[in-house]
Amino acid sequence: MFNPSTLIDFDALFNNLGTFYSFLDPNGKATIKNLWTGIFNGLEGLKFDLYQSELPLALKYSTGHLFHSFNEYNVIFNGDNKNITETFYTSPYSLSGSWTPVISGGIYNYVVTGVKNALETDAPSPLLLVSGASTVSGLETNPNTIYWTSDDAMDYYNVYGRTLGSETLIAAVSGATSYVDSGISVGDATAPTVNASIKAYNYTIQDDHYYMTIPTLSGYVTGQILTEGDDYSIENLKIIKFLKPLSDVVSSSGIAVDPGNWPTLKTEKFIAPSGLSLIPTLISVYFPAMGAADSPVDPVLSGSYSPFISGWADMAYYNKRKTYADHLWKLTYALTYVLRGTPTLTNLEQAASLFQSMPFSYYTGTVTALTSGLTDYYLTVVATDTNEATVVYQIPVINHLLHAVDDSVSQFDILCSGISIYDYQTAPLVVSGLMLKEGEVYEFDVYTENINDEQDKYKLYSDKGLIIENER
Q: Long-range contacts of range 287-295, CB-CB < 8 Å, 24 or more positions apart?
């Protein structure tokens, strides 16, 4: 596809070709340059025409997803050739304290780290306290209390103190985010300066697909079976995020790697028996064309465009993601179909409703049943084409339904009210021109009102069949 934002320097291009162009006079060069500029601009028009007229037809005969079988991912967790990045636990922060301040007291410094899976974070900036205890032994009667905040649930926290720049281990604290320093020390270890507490390992999938789900991974060497949602997650449709610490043995508490090279080199080949991805054009063409150019996966990740299908929320994970992918395809087809239509108020209102994730009909058909519960309506539409499915739409009762039993619905019809678009154009010639373009006929009741005895003025315009702008 051609990029409309691309600028081509034809002078630099032609001057380096070594052709007859370099021998032309300025007028001749301008003629050649204008010719090629027109050709390239024409190609941009071709791109627009393809998007408007041809690509929507491709969606009609497509599906929202692709199935994958036995993909392999060679993951190298460490070493010079590692192909992952790490996510670290957040270090404790917002240190504060309470003490008994007196003029003759001593100055104490504290830092706090978090420990998870035997790996420790680094320490934030030290907390300085001016205490009532002039010596460490005095803390027994004048203790210092240290508080901190932690975004992650750590196994325990290490508290270091009391001399600035050479804080040593004072205590290990479990199940709390505060510590009372009464002068006890437990060792001479110092706080680390680098965060080593790895929260996850992120492997970017090296193909052009965007995955809704990869249900399981099997270790080729270790034979372990990993499950999505427990051992790993799929981030941004492209990243396998391993959520547990690495291990040289198979267990439910870790990600096993090849024990033959442990711990020098940590690797494993993971095999995905199955996977489900979006059709590539949704991410590469349609979502950017509809406004998500900076991050085309956002329409999926936001969850704003989830299906209004009965039972969808309770489906098994794999089927739920498949249904979600199919809905995104149908939504994209609906939007491309509507947006390439005439810019009437009806079409604009329908497009705005689709962009706002209003329920719409997947197929042309007839409403055969309508039931309601405490929170939702259940609207059954039987497709006219027997090759298409009967769909039961689940629509929150806060919405006003636009269809009843035995009503016909067209493909992409909005099923409930919620968004309206009004035209406040008052110029009669403009309004009549738009109506003629739309091929629609409107009738108006025109009346006049006596304001300041200006009946003659309104009589004049009424006779001419015009409505005065900005006047009642």
A: 287/332, 289/51, 290/332, 290/335, 290/339, 290/355
Q: Rounded to 5 degrees, what are φ and ψ at 28?
A: -65, -40
Q: What angle do CA 330, 358, 322 make, to 5 degrees?
A: 40
User: Residue 14: in which H helix or E strand, if any?
Assistant: helix 10-15
pLDDT for the residue numbered 439: 45
**What is the token pair recorded at 67?**
């199935």
Answer whether 147's CB lies under 8 Å from 117's CB: no
Supply the Cα-derived Rg of the chain in whole angstroms. 34
CA distance 110 to 126: 5
Which is more confident, 376 or 47?
376
Structure tokens given for 110:
């504290």
**Cross-strand bridge partners of residue 161:** 110, 168
Helix (H, G, I), strand (E, B) or coil at 248: coil
pTM for the model stands at: 0.72
**Tokens (6 digits) for 206:** 């090296």
In the chain the domains, ranked by start, together with CATH numbers, are 1-45 (no CATH), 73-87+198-277 (no CATH), 90-181 (no CATH), 281-422 (2.40.50.100), 428-464 (no CATH)
Helix or strand or coil: residue 425? coil
DSSP state of 138: G
Structure tokens at 256: 């096993």
Specify whether the CB–CB gap between 392 and 380 falls below 8 A: yes
Strand partners, 49: none
- What distance in Å separates the CA atoms of residue 288 and residue 294, rounded to the nearest whole number? 7
Strands (E), 196-346: 198-204, 211-213, 216-219, 225-227, 232-235, 239-242, 246-247, 255-256, 267-278
**Strand, coil or helix: what is 99?**
coil
Q: What is the residue type of 297?
A: V
Does residue 399 surpass a pLDDT of 80? yes
pLDDT digits (tens, 9 = 90+) for 254-309: 999 999 999 999 999 999 999 999 998 888 888 887 778 888 899 899 888 999 99
Tokens representing 369 are 């049943």
Q: Which of 97, 157, 150 is nearest to 126 (CA)?
A: 97
Average confidence score pLDDT of the chain:
82
Residue tagged 């999505």 (tokens) = 228
The length of the chain is 472
Assign 3-class secondary structure to 318-346. Answer: HHHHHHHHHHHHHHHHHHHHHHCCCCCHH
Among 447, 457, 82, which residue's Cα sits nearest to residue 257?
Answer: 82
End-to-end CA, the chain: 53
